[in-house]
Inverse folding.
């Protein structure tokens, strides 16, 4: 599997980072960073650990052993290690599946033992018929007696209600018959009843219990059987859920993998080919990092989660909306033609003044807001040279645009004084994480990404590098986030007023680090999003902006707090503004290649359709009925009006084959459902959360 | 700086005000009002009360819909066929009786037996293949029966004592389930959370009275309310072994199980009275329903559905519906509490094993309890 070496490297890097990162914190935010990192360090690592364990144990059984050896090398005796291995295996896919299968089979034998002895008094049609016959005869005889007393017998028969009595008696007979057939007692002698609880039948019964389908085509009749069913379900249902969740996870990751391989390769082959060369560049050149003291090690654990996606778009939207300053109205209005920017071969220098102005305008607002909310904005780095800190931030036209254009080139190559001490450079992260580190700072990397822009953006100017390749997007976002997450230099000159400095100095770096996104629309500084979030962002940002402009969000109502989160209506505080670092979601590598919801739905629907065809062929139901059966089964409603093999009475060989087919279809279908839940879940949660925020249900 | 920023914003605001014309603005605000009202309505619907109301309304709506689809315009072909069969049988008997003298016992018996056998042979396939229930659809799909049917659909219980026969009924069932199941999940999570809070509050209040007897609540006796989650998280890892348990503010699993067991037993007692089932059967029915297995071998009102004691059956079925709705929320509550407790236990377990370095738990074990709810 692809994930294993990478995951291992990630974890190693994380361990190191856990040591290195907090030391780079500065005093202003030290506490904040530290607690963030501490809290963040735990869950992702453990999640990654469990993930690794499951993946590794799925692929081969030797891996967990190795991993456990590694993990337990400094603690734990052989016993503990063995116990760990056993537990790991028990919770791996294979172990869980085996456990569920064993549980089902054991249940099958148990219920067979319990129920086969119990033979119900079956519906014997001959005795019922005999009773009916006797009754009919009695009625007739009584009427005949009346006839004998005198009168035309036909009139007597009609008037005495012979017909009605006959009809009523027949109906009673019929009711008993219907009940008997419904309870499967009709013509079910002891042998048939015993046969019904043979191994296959009880196996299917167990499956219907622990999946909570409960067809009810056979159900326990003895007291003991009922009680055992209750306890069997108490244990079995959670077990089944656990197994399904686990298998769903595995299937979801493989589905994602396949989706990315199959679909995206086909769609974006040419684009990927273009990106291939710049992609390999940072990873290959990562070897040089050991020589060069890493000025900044990106916090690998703090790839911001996708949840922060909700934070950034509102900001950009707000800025965009609020930026119709009379002073600079024309520059901010459209996403000023990105193609012009994209076509520039050397981006930082030939940036159009217009673009820069846009950024400056936007950035000043951000900076002022940051100052306003007393928020340290990590993306805005205070350079060592303090001579620019003279301005007051409320002055609109104070900053000449030329300064900002020219500055990036100079400040980019100055080694940052906030470089961590040299011993830490030995703990350099593996090549994956080293993108931002080369050449003395994150700016270079971003510039590199920026330079890569033109080739990509020829196709999609809005968000070129983000949509073409997910891998690329994630690496770029890493770079961006690393640059953003750089802590404050310890030697800040204006130490007393760090925010004022930051507010003033921030725009200087912006042109250089402008990532390839639609200019003037979103702010780059806050682009602390992971790759998939970036992918998502353009959509969401637009929607949010619309929402915001529409004004039915609460942001419009209180215009004084500009940094209102348009969804929650709260003023965005520092945590939400720039320092939006959260622990990595458990599977960021999977999240990079997310599968869109319609495709998942189509997959499930096609599974239902295949099942409908299968049962149409197997059972001879109509297509509608078979589809209905598949839905009722997979949603675990399980009416039991259609059960595979029901018409054959569960005893014959053919019916048992159908039962087995049905249960296989059912088990696999449940796994497919779990997989699709897994695939869809995150996106749905995000959407629901956005919706809930929008309607004001949720705070924060 | 704050003032500067505020001034900037204020300027912009003023300018915007000036820019927008009066009429346009008023229309905009009207639209806002409408939209805001909609938003508020939706927001209300997603609160606990709103979700309860939504579920009940959805249930009743489903009952009416299915009653209309299956009951009024339903497929009564099997019943009509059965009626015809019965008439034919009676006619045949009459012919036999009229033709043969009643005194010819053996002959009469033979012929009648043959007629009855034919009748039986006709009825059985009708039941097996066409789902003949012996009751006309308009009677079988009484309001309360339809209520129970729609409940059994969206809770995925699926008793199967009543099933749609028409194509439209099947399609409606599928659509109803697609919408209803997420709604039910929402209901369960929402109401379950509230119930969990209430239960926790009551539990700790009750426990504080006899703190000594319970092993779970030893320290911090002055504080009645459960400590917020963050505080608990911080405190717990420091305590080792027994003391950690003493500080724990989660409700032990046994209590949750007891709540469910009591609820099931109560239901069992009631149903055994009503339906003249044995106590075990009634408890079995409650459990099978609450766990959404729903075999359908025991269904309240089934034996007498639509035949006699109509009103009693109706009220019973409605009460069963309410019982199941409340019960599912209760089960969700217990899952909520049990999940908390299980996670705590597993954390301690893993920590003791040394698998985890910090007080985090692996996401692996969270699975059953999370999805269980």
């Amino acid at each position: 599997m692809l994930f294993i070496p990478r995951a291992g490297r990630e974890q190693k890097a994380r361990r190191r980072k856990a040591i290195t990162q907090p030391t780079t914190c500065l005093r202003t935010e030290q506490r904040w960073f530290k607690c963030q990192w501490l809290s963040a360090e735990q869950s992702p690592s453990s999640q990654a650990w469990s993930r690794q364990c499951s993946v590794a144990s799925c692929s081969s059984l030797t891996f967990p052993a190795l991993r456990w050896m590694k993990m337990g090398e400094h603690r734990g005796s052989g016993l503990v290690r063995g116990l760990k291995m056993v537990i790991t295996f028990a919770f791996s896919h294979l172990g869980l599946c085996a456990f569920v299968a064993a549980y089902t089979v054991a249940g099958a034998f148990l219920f067979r033992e319990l129920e086969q002895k119990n033979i119900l008094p079956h519906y014997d049609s001959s005795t019922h018929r005999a009773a009916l016959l006797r009754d009919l005869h009695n009625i007739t005889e009584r009427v005949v007696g009346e006839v004998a007393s005198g009168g035309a017998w036909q009139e007597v028969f009609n008037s005495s209600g012979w017909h009605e009595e006959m009809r009523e008696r027949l109906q009673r007979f019929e009711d008993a018959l219907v009940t008997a057939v419904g309870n499967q007692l009709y013509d079910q002698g002891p042998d048939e009843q015993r046969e019904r609880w043979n191994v296959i039948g009880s196996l299917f019964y167990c499956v219907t219990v622990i999946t909570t389908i409960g067809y009810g085509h056979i159900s326990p009749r003895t007291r003991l059987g009922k009680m055992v069913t209750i306890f069997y379900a108490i244990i079995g249902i959670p077990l089944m859920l656990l197994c399904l969740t686990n298998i769903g996870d595995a299937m979801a990751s493989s589905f994602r993998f396949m989706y990315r391989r199959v679909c995206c390769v086909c769609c974006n082959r040419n684009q990927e080919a273009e990106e291939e060369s710049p992609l390999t560049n940072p990873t290959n050149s990562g070897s040089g990092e050991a020589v060069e003291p890493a000025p900044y090690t990106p916090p690998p654990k703090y790839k911001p989660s996708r949840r922060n996606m909700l934070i950034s778009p509102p900001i950009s939207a707000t800025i965009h909306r609020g930026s119709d300053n009379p002073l600079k109205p024309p520059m901010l209005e459209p996403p000023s033609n990105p193609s012009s920017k994209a076509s520039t071969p050397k981006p930082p220098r030939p940036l159009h003044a217009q673009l820069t102005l846009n950024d400056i305008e936007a950035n000043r607002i951000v900076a002022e807001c940051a100052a306003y909310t007393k928020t340290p904005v990590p993306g805005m780095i205070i350079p060592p040279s303090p001579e620019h800190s003279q301005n007051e931030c409320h002055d609109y036209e104070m900053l000449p645009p030329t300064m900002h254009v020219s500055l990036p080139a100079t400040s980019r190559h100055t080694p940052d004084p906030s470089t961590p001490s040299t011993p830490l450079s030995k703990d350099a992260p593996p090549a994956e994480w080293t993108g931002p580190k080369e050449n003395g700072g994150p700016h270079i990397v971003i510039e590199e990404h920026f330079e890569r822009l033109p080739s990509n953006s020829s196709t999609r100017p809005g968000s070129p590098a983000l949509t073409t390749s997910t891998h690329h997007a994630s690496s770029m976002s890493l770079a961006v986030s690393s640059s953003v997450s750089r802590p404050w230099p310890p030697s800040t000159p204006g130490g007393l007023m760090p925010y004022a400095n930051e507010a003033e100095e921030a725009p200087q770096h912006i042109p250089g680090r402008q990532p390839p996104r639609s200019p003037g629309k979103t702010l780059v500084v806050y682009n602390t999003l992971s790759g998939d979030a970036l992918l998502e962002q353009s959509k969401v940002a637009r929607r949010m902006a619309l929402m915001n402009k529409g004004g039915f969000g609460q942001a419009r109502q209180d215009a004084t707090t500009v940094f209102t989160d348009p969804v929650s209506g709260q003023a965005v505080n520092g945590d939400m503004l720039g320092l939006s670092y959260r622990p990595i979601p458990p599977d960021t590598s999977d999240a990079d290649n997310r599968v869109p919801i319609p495709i998942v739905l189509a997959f499930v629907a096609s599974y239902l359709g295949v099942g409908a065809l299968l049962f149409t062929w197997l059972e001879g139901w109509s297509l509608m009925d078979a589809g209905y059966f598949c839905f009722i089964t997979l949603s675990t409603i399980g009416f039991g009006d259609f059960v595979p093999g029901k018409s054959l009475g569960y005893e014959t060989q053919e019916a048992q084959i159908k039962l087995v087919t049905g249960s296989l279809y059912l088990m696999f279908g449940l796994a497919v459902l779990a997989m699709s839940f897994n695939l869809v879940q995150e996106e749905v949660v995000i959407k629901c959360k956005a919706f809930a925020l929008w309607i004001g249900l949720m705070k924060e | 700086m704050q003032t500067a920023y505020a001034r900037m914003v204020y300027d912009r605001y003023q300018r915007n005000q000036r820019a927008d014309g009066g009429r346009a603005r008023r229309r905009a605000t009207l639209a806002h009002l409408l939209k805001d009202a909609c938003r508020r309505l939706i927001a209300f619907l997603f609160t606990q009360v709103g979700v309860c109301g939504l579920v009940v309304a959805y249930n009743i709506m489903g009952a009416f819909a299915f009653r209309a689809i299956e009951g009024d315009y339903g497929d009564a072909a099997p019943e009509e066929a059965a009626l015809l069969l019965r008439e034919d049988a009676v006619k045949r008997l009459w012919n036999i009786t009229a033709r043969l003298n009643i005194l010819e016992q053996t002959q009469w018996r033979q012929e009648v037996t043959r007629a009855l056998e034919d009748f039986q042979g006709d009825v059985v396939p009708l039941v097996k293949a066409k789902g003949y229930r012996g009751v006309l659809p308009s009677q079988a799909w009484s309001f309360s029966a339809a209520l129970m049917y729609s409940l059994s659909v969206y809770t995925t219980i699926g008793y199967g004592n009543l099933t749609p026969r028409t194509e439209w009924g099947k399609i409606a069932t599928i659509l109803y389930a697609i919408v209803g199941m997420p709604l039910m999940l929402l209901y369960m999570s929402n109401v379950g959370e509230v119930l969990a809070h209430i239960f926790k509050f009551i539990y700790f209040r009750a426990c504080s009275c006899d703190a000594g007897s319970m092993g779970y609540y030893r320290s911090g006796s002055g504080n009645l309310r459960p400590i917020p989650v963050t505080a608990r998280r911080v405190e717990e890892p420091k305590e080792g072994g027994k003391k950690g348990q003493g500080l724990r503010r989660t409700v032990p699993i046994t209590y949750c199980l007891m709540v469910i067991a009591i609820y099931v037993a109560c239901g069992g007692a009631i149903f055994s009275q009503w339906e003249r089932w044995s106590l075990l059967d009634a408890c079995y029915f409650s459990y099978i329903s609450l766990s959404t297995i729903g075999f359908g071998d025991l269904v309240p009102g089934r034996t007498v559905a639509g035949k006699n004691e109509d009103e009693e059956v109706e009220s019973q079925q409605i009460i069963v519906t309410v019982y199941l709705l409340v019960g599912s929320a209760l089960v969700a509550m217990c899952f909520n509490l049990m999940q908390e407790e299980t996670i705590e236990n597993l954390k301690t377990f893993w920590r003791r094993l040394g698998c985890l370095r910090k007080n985090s738990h692996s996401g692996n074990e969270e699975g059953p309890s999370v999805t269980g709810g």
